[in-house]
Structure formats: C-alpha cells, structure tokens
Amino acid sequence: MKVNGTPYRSLWWNHDTATLEIIDQRWLPHDFRVLAVETMDDYAEAIRDMRVRGAPLIGATAGYGMAFAMREDPSDAGMDAAWDRLHVTRPTAINLRWALDRCREALRPLAPGDRAAAALQLAHDIADEDVEINRNIGLHGLDIIREISERKNGGTVNLLTHCNAGWLATVDWGTATSPMYHAHEAGIDIHVWVDETRPRNQGALTAWELGSHGIPHTYITDNAGGHLMQHGQVDMVITGTDRTTAQGDVCNKIGTYLKALAARDNGVPFYVALPSPTIDWTVSDGVAGIPIEERDAREVTHVQGRTEAGISSVQVTPEGSPAGNPAFDVTPNRLVTGLITERGVSEASTAGLAAMFPDLSARKSA
Ligand code: MRU
C-alpha cells in the first residue's frame, strides 16, 4: 500500500545488499524508518521487540530468517538452531511456527549446498503468497460490506476494527483492512471506527494506514466500541487474528473478546479476517490451548508519543503499582459470525473450517 504516494510492502528484499529491509514499526505513526536486518540477532530482535509485528508479517520475517541462517550454516544443526532461535521470540502468533515448519520441511531433504538458494526463494514465496491471500480475503469481505451498503441504500457503512490487522501487520493489504481497502476502491461509502488498543496504541497504526489512503475513519478509545454499538453506529466488526483454532476460536489482540461480547449483545455481526496460515489445526479449545504472551509491564506503565522534543515515553501509572500485560485474548467461536478466509467466508466451527480447507485440516491433524 502507499506511503506518501509511494507503494510499499512492510518488508522487502534488497537485491543489491542481499539483506531484508523492514519498516521499523516501533516509531510509527510518528516516524517512518526503514531498517536493514543483517544478523541472526537482528532477526530475533525484530520479531521479539515488534519492529515487525502482526501474525502474517512475523511469519514472513521468520522465512527470511531461515534463509539468512542457511547462508551462514546450511547444516541440519544450523537449521534446527535457527528454528529454535526464532520460534521462542513470540509465543502466540501461529504464523511464526507455520513458516518455520514450512521452511524446515522443504529444506531438510535438500543437500546442504542447495539450501541457501532454496530457502531464499521460499521466503520470497511466503511473502508473495501472503499478499495474494490477503487480497482474496479483501474480495470476500467486500461482498459482505456491499450487501450492508445495499441494505442501507448506499448509506455509510460503519465498520469497527481493533488493533492493527492492516498492511503493516502483513506483507501487504492487511487482513481486516483488506475488505476496507477493496470497498473504498469499489466506491462504497465506508467509515471505520479504529480502537486505539492499549497498551501499544496499535489503532494509531490503523489510523495512519487508513488516513494515508483517504479512508474516512475515527480513532476511538479501547472502550468506546460497546457504546457505539448500543447506539446503532456500528454495522459490522472486522478484526484480525493471531491464531484461530480448528473449531474456530479466535485469538487476537487483547480486548477483542470484549468487542465480540458487545457485538453479540447488540446484534452487530462480528467477522474475523483469517488467512489459512493463521489456523492452528492442532488446537480446538482456544481458551485452554493457546499460550497467551505476557509482555513487559513497561508497555502498560508507559506510553510513547510525540512531543515537541521528538518521540518519547512517559509514565502514566503511580510509582510502584504493579502492572500486568497479557497481549492477546480468545473469542470463543459462538461469538463469531463468520471467518473471512482467502477461499470464502467460513462458519467458525470445526465443520465449517474443515469444509473450507479439507486439504489443510486433514494434513495437519493427521
Ligand atoms: O502484538 P502484535 O502487534 O504482533 O499483534 C498482532 C496484531 O496486530 C493483531 O492481533 C492483529 O489483529 C492480528 S495480526 C493480522
């Protein structure tokens, strides 16, 4: 998508330097900085410290991390060490493990001398496939938005999203935002309520993205969504997901569950944009089975923003108050109206997902 009129992906391969370059998301929306990822430490830190973030983008970065590792040490031991090193960086987003497993399975049968080139090609493939998956999610989501628009006789369709499941969280298009971009391009009148999403205020990333594309939006606090739904100001919720189980339980950024509860109470459809690599076919009950990342308490006690002196961080809590920081929660499938996948809209259930992805469900749960 575009930044100041220039098309960008959230990461790309620099063929001149043979390095990965990323948009360093720690500084957004205030500062647009590009960072070269040059060592294995860089790869691990980029994911752990959220220089790249969002489940699909974490997966794509891990693919390039494996490619880097194969250039350094293409032995089985080198491959396994890279898998381990990258896998521990973030526990919840399943795309990380999906990408690492995909690389290892493809590379293992190859002679070590062939692995570096194959791994780099695989990393490019994973990135390109992500773009295509998200584009298709957008087209299926567009159908739902168009239907709402027709029901409202072309009146504004008010969408609500939580956190950033935009192009910054993927390689391009985003998951939850892809239907928004497609609807906007199709000339449908939409407006997006953007939850700020404490503690890292990731709604600000969504607002930045939507603003860059001229999509009407309003940035609201984490807790305003329920009130807006009670007053008929939300037609549809679309969120992303970091891991969705085989039975359609959706793990996403903390606070998503509360939006789903409010949506159910107010009869607002609650959709989740779900790329197939985000499905964990090995887990059914998401509340019991998904590890929830507990992040640094400083993300809660401090807030980063722009001051006249530049980007800085201020403390918002009293000195000494302990803070907790679970980064994700799980929305049970019963609260999910539908899963917008690259193949179409699926019911959030074991039967629905298995019917949409018979090839993947059979292979992974075997
Ligand atoms: O912790 P993050 O920033 O990596 O969280 C991921 C997210 O941005 C959201 O949970 C998102 O809605 C799912 S990723 C498309």
Task: Fill in the CATH topology of the largest domain.
Answer: Rossmann fold
Distance between the termini: 38 Å
User: In terms of per-residue confidence, which ranges show pLDDT below 50 for 5 or more consecutive residues?
Assistant: none
The CATH architecture category of the largest domain equals 3-Layer(aba) Sandwich
What structural category characterises the helix and strand content?
A: alpha/beta
Tally the helices. 13
Which superfamily, in CATH terms, is the homologous superfamily of the largest domain?
Translation initiation factor eif-2b, domain 2
**Average pLDDT rating:** 97
Strand order of the largest sheet: 8-7-6-9-12-17-18
Bound molecules: 5-S-methyl-1-O-phosphono-5-thio-D-ribulose
Counted beta strands: 18
Chart the SSEs and their pairings:
Layout: E1 2-3, E2 6-7, E3 11-14, E4 19-23, E5 34-37, H1 40-48, H2 55-72, H3 76-87, H4 94-107, H5 112-151, E6 157-161, H6 178-185, E7 190-195, H7 203-212, E8 217-220, H8 225-230, E9 236-239, E10 243-245, E11 250-253, H9 256-265, E12 270-273, E13 279-280, H10 286-289, H11 298-301, E14 302-307, E15 310-315, E16 328-331, E17 338-341, E18 344-346, H12 350-356, H13 358-365
Parallel strand pairs: 6-7, 6-9, 7-8, 9-12, 10-13, 12-17
Antiparallel strand pairs: 1-2, 3-4, 4-5, 10-11, 11-16, 14-15, 17-18
Helix pairs in contact: 1-2, 2-3, 2-4, 2-5, 3-4, 4-5, 5-6, 12-13
The chain binds 5-S-methyl-1-O-phosphono-5-thio-D-ribulose.
The site of 5-S-methyl-1-O-phosphono-5-thio-D-ribulose has 18 residues, from helix 2 and strand 11.
What would your notes on this structure say?
There is one protein chain. By secondary structure, this protein is of the alpha/beta class. It has two domains: 2-129, Four Helix Bundle (Hemerythrin (Met), subunit A); 137-365, Rossmann fold (3-Layer(aba) Sandwich). Helices cover 41% and strands 20% of the residues. The chain contains 13 helices and 18 strands. The protein has a seven-stranded mixed beta sheet. A four-stranded mixed beta sheet has the order 13-10-11-16, with helices on one face. Strand 17 (338-341) and strand 18 form a beta hairpin. Helix 1 (40-48) runs antiparallel to helix 2 and helix 4 packs antiparallel against helix 5 (112-151). The radius of gyration is 20 Å and the shape is globular. The mean pLDDT is 97. The protein binds 5-S-methyl-1-O-phosphono-5-thio-D-ribulose. 5-S-methyl-1-O-phosphono-5-thio-D-ribulose (MRU) binds at residues 50, 53-56, 163-165, 169, 175, 202, 239-242, 252-253, 327.
